[in-house]
Specification:
- The complex is a heterodimer of chains A (about 500) and B (about 50).
- Chain A is an alpha/beta fold.
- Helix content of chain A is about 25%, strand content about 25%.
- Chain A contains 10 helices and 24 strands.
- In chain A, strands 1, 2, 5, 6, 7, 8, 20 and 21 form an 8-stranded mixed sheet that branches.
- In chain A, helix 1 packs parallel to helix 9.
- The radius of gyration of chain A is 22 Å and the shape is globular.
- The mean pLDDT of chain B is about 85.
- Classes of the chains: A alpha/beta (about 500), B mainly alpha (about 50).
- Chains A and B meet through helix 7, helix 9, strand 23, strand 24 and helix 10 of A and helix 1 and helix 2 of B.
Chain lengths: ~500, ~50
């Protein structure tokens, strides 16, 4: 019997665990180690953040789902990886520290035959002074929609703000990215439109100025270098598409910005030209930068070997070309990106989603004359991360069953697409959405004139996208609960 | 209602005309769009799995 351990129970980890257990059956063991007791459909946190959904609408307890599936669930955080085992025993293992199940604070060693790192991001609020509380958590000045609890807090703050506006006060709302090296622009993009929608519903939109602040070079970059779509007889940049959306909603935007300090009523930011600015606010939702989960690796003799399997940001090294970053933006290639997501040193270790270390940015690296890096980091959430989870699970199952000694499936971001639906409203007829797809995520200018397949890259606005978003919400929660037919819902 | 401000950001961006705005909420047109978006996404998913 082989044991597969998956560290992390988010979109990629849960997908990997679910499929691995289905394919391996009871002959082998699948263990999930995650510090959370609830699974969270993170894309719908946006709706929680304006009070249109509750925390219960976007989360569910993991324990009963894993019990039904036969997956060994440990509510614990992974602390360290020991890929060579101990002096007296070569069996690799990880150390965990329980956060629930009545064993809070207890440490344990879990041996493995195969290991998937799906730990997701550490929300690095403290990277920007004032954005965090100095202890790694969200600070007191701004709100976030990165977790369901954060989103509940955001909705309460927004509701209180709306009440003041109903009393005649004018308010300044700031939504965007809280650091020059953030990813996940899509979340801020969707939240700002939902705030606009909420304030219109409350009848106080005219009392608010709404501003978007981003580290993107232009609107529509999204950390993937932007995209081109066919529209009205033109092949046009997504920048035009995005700016149109903001203009139609009366939302002002600030781009090329690194927020370097957050205070109670204003943010300080530096722009690519090196100038320093301030933006006052009464309500701010700022996404933090992401970092690795902070795992360490230990050698057989007890020495630290984290640099062997982790990049400096503690994201895990996989089969990417990590030398390619130094070759410069003009020389980057789709081949730089990992395919099997297998660690090059320890072939029984894989990493998926945010947990794998990308070889370089997708957007062009830029910095101000002061040396401040201001550009989005590559997005690896949502649809691509689920695809990675499934592909890695398939490879490992084939390796366990003896079908192959090497990974049999790939999930290369230069060969996969992504869909993003930014929706406002919850009702069937009173919502609207921006639906976008791109193929591939990492542009390939040797293969496609505009970097991507124009037939697979498109954007449209309307009620239909809103229906798609609702379908995704209910469909993916159904799938994640492993209810009948869950395998038929594609990731 | 004034949609743009000259010499401001909004003065240089395209905005939707009345017919486009109508289509965004026209249920019949959006049902067709719904099918189209789902087809596009399905093709995308099929092409992405390796």
């Amino acid at each position: 019997m082989a044991r597969l351990i998956i560290m992390g129970g988010g979109v990629s980890g849960h997908t990997a665990a679910s499929f691995a257990k289905k394919w391996l059956g009871n002959e082998h063991e699948v263990v999930v180690v995650t510090p959370n007791s609830l699974w969270n459909w993170i894309p719908s946190n946006i709706f929680v953040g304006i009070g249109e959904m509750t925390k219960e609408d976007v989360t569910f307890p993991l324990a009963p789902v894993y019990k039904k599936a036969g997956i060994d669930y440990r509510q614990a955080k992974a602390v360290s990886v020991h890929p060579e085992g101990k002096t007296e025993d070569d069996t690799p293992f990880i150390t965990i520290e329980y956060t629930g199940q009545g064993k809070e604070g207890q440490a344990e060693e879990l041996t493995y035959d195969y290991l998937i790192n799906a730990t997701g991001p550490k929300l690095n609020f403290d990277a920007t002074p004032g954005l965090g509380d100095g202890k790694g958590h969200l600070g007191e000045h701004t709100v976030s929609v990165c977790t369901a609890d954060h989103a509940v807090h955001a909705s309460l703050e927004l509701k209180a703000l709306a009440e003041k506006m109903k009393a005649g006060e004018k308010k300044r709302i700031l939504v965007g990215l809280g650091h020059g090296m953030c990813t996940c622009q899509g979340a801020a993009f969707e939240y700002i439109f939902n705030v606009d929608h909420y304030l219109k519903q409350e009848g106080v939109r005219d009392k608010a100025t709404i501003t978007y602040i981003s580290n993107e070079y232009e609107l529509g970059d999204f950390g993937v270098g932007g995209m081109h779509i066919k529209s009205g007889g033109y092949v046009t940049s997504g920048k035009v598409f995005a700016e149109s959306l903001y203009t139609e909603r009366g939302i002002r935007w600030i781009t090329r910005a690194h927020v370097n300090k957050v205070e109670a009523d204003k943010v300080h930011y530096e722009t690519l030209d090196g100038e320093m600015h301030e933006e006052a606010y009464d309500f701010a939702m700022l996404i933090p930068p992401f970092a690795g989960a902070g795992l360490t690796a230990t050698a057989k003799d007890g020495s630290d070997m984290s640099s062997v399997i982790f990049a400096p940001n503690t994201m895990m090294k996989v089969d990417a070309d990590y030398e390619s970053g130094a070759r410069g933006f003009e020389n980057w290639s789709p081949n730089d990106w990992p395919s099997t997501l297998q660690n090059p040193t320890y072939k029984n270790i894989f990493a998926v989603g945010i947990a794998f270390a990308p070889p370089h940015f997708i957007s062009k690296p830029m910095s101000s004359p002061n040396g401040t890096a201001i550009n989005p980091t590559p997005p690896r959430t949502g649809m691509p991360s689920a695809m990675m989870g499934k592909a890695v699970a398939a490879s490992i199952c084939d390796m366990i069953k003896g079908v192959s000694d090497t990974p049999t499936h790939t999930a290369n971001m230069a060969e996969m697409g992504a869909a993003c639906v930014a929706s406002t409203g919850k009702g069937l007829l009173n919502g609207t959405a921006v639906s976008m797809t791109m193929y591939p995520v990492v542009p390939d200018y040797n293969k496609y004139e505009y970097g991507r397949d124009l037939n697979g890259t498109f954007g449209t606005i309307g009620l239909a996208g809103h229906w798609v978003k609702l379908l995704l919400h209910y469909g993916f929660i159904w799938k994640a609960k492993l209810k009948p037919g869950w395998t038929l819902i594609p990731e | 209602m004034k949609h743009i401000e000259q010499y401001e950001q909004s003065g240089y961006t395209p905005v939707s005309g009345k017919f486009t705005l109508f289509l965004r909420n026209c249920v019949i047109w959006q049902i067709i769009q719904f099918a189209w978006i789902n087809l596009k996404m399905t093709i995308l998913i099929v092409k992405s799995h390796h």
